[in-house]
Amino acid sequence: VGEWSVPKIAPAYDLTGWGAEFRCGDLHHDFTLGHVMKAILSGTPTRLIGPPATGKTSGIVQACAHMGIPCRIIQCGKGLTEYTLLGEQTIEGGSVVWKDGILPSLGRTVSADGPSVIVFDEIDHLTAPIQSLLHGVLEGRTLDLPNGEKVIIPENVICVATANTYGTGDTTGRHAAASVSDDAFISRWTRTFTVRYLTEERERELLAAHGIPALRLDALMQFVTGSRTQAREIDAGTISDGVRTPVTLRTLLPLAAECANGGDFVPAFLSTVMGQFSPDEAGHARELVRSCMSF
């Protein structure tokens, strides 16, 4: 249930291209993965927020892999219940026994030799009651179990949360499962970084290496940037209509893989990238394709 391990290194992962930022009016600061990991390893509970497929979880996992730090991801979707997180009473051999869930098991089995990182992936999908169960862990390091036991989570266990939203729910329709978090929960995450997409230069290099034809790269990147710009402006209320779904590497890499295997770019683009858009925004995506590409 709660097993620690050092992640495997993914040789192709771009650690240097990973970046986070703070932007508010004229205040702007960039953070490297090194900056973020230094903050995390100081022991303070840290949130990483940003669009899908920016590497919020994978960046931390790969940093742990290179640093030899044990890491465990806890998926916070609807499948995570109080019982899977904390544990429950069960019957074994005719007797009632307590079975630890993920969190107490991790707390009991962690090595004291160095830091270990728990990543709560998509923590904004947790319901309010389950969020409240983590209050004592984030502040005080005490986990209260339903059987009355108190489990002390060691100081070297570091909690990291990833999310697409800032805890206020979702109005875009892209993250409909996101829950609203109260101030008590949000305030316990004492550091927050906004993770951004790879720079255009890095993304171009990655896509070219994975098989996107050189003659298609300029137009494709113009389309990708346009989709992200429109989605960002819709979220900010700057525009009211357009492409709501930003194109990410999750759809671009399958496109590149099909091209690398000899597939034609246009049908591959239609089935991977264009196929993700809902009918009501496909027309806007088509107009963006028309303005950026030759088909």
Concise account of the structure shown:
The chain is α/β, with parallel strands linked by helices and 295 residues long. The chain contains twelve helices and eleven strands.
3D architecture notes:
This protein is 39% helix and 19% strand. The chain has a seven-stranded mixed sheet with strand order 2-1-11-3-10-7-4, with helices on one face. It has twelve helices and eleven strands. The termini are far apart. By secondary structure, the chain is α/β, with parallel strands linked by helices. Helix 9 crosses helix 12. Strand 8 and strand 9 form a beta hairpin.
Mean pLDDT value: 93
**Main beta sheet, described?**
7 strands, mixed
State the end-to-end CA separation: 51 Å
**Global morphology:** elongated
| DSSP helical segment count | 12
In helices, the fraction of residues equals 25-40%
Radius of gyration: 21 Å
| Class by alpha and beta content | alpha/beta
* Helix and strand element order: EEHEHEHEEHEHHEEEHEHHHHH
> In what order do the strands lie side by side in the largest sheet?
2-1-11-3-10-7-4
Total beta-strand segments: 11
Q: Which residues form runs of ≥5 with pLDDT under 50?
A: none
Sheet-strand content, in percent, reads 15-25%
Relevant terms:
single chain; 295 residues; alpha/beta; seven-stranded mixed sheet; two-stranded antiparallel ribbon; 12 helices; elongated
